[in-house]
Amino acid sequence: MRAVVVALLLASGCRQEPATPAVTSGGGASPNYELDCASSDTATAAQLYCVRTDTRTGDILRVNHMALPASNGSTAAGNAPAGRFTTVCDATSTDTRSDFYCVRMNTESGEMLLVNLQKVGSLPPEG
């Protein structure tokens, strides 16, 4: 009986695992694209700046968030592997006005969407 247990342990120890993709600190596969946004604010002017980085080539592009298609309801895109989508939000503000923007990006294709926060659901669900 012991010989069988030892043989099974040895056999399982020799099993080859498939190669795994590179991982990020979050534990998922490294994304093809990353998105970063930050605002530049003064007392009289405010602007949101976003850049998209292609992590495979290092190519960086400026994103005109106001020219992106905007959501008009749910932003769900069906089932996808964890990590497929990322969202970056930031606020711009002057002494007299403040705006809050969110951009959702597909980390595989790089496709982006300006999120209309007035038309998406909320947590916890409202009344």
Please give a structural write-up.
With 127 residues, this protein is mainly β. The chain has one domain (29-119). Helices cover 10% and strands 34% of the residues. It has one helix and six strands; from the N terminus they run αββββββ. The strands form two sheets. It has a three-stranded antiparallel beta sheet, with no helix packed on it. The longest helix is centred in the first third of the chain and has 13 residues, at 2-14. It is flat. The model is unreliable at 1-26 (pLDDT under 50).
Spell out the key features of this protein.
three-stranded antiparallel β-sheet, 127 residues, mainly beta, 1 helix, 34% strand
Number of strands: 6
- Strands of the largest sheet, in order across it? 1-2-3
- Morphology: flat
Query: Gap between N and C termini, in Å?
Result: 63 Å
Indicate the mean pLDDT.
Answer: 81
Brief write-up:
This protein has 127 residues and is mainly β.
Topology:
Blueprint: H1 2-14, E1 33-41, E2 46-54, E3 60-63, E4 85-93, E5 98-106, E6 112-114
Antiparallel strand pairs: 1-2, 2-3, 4-5, 5-6
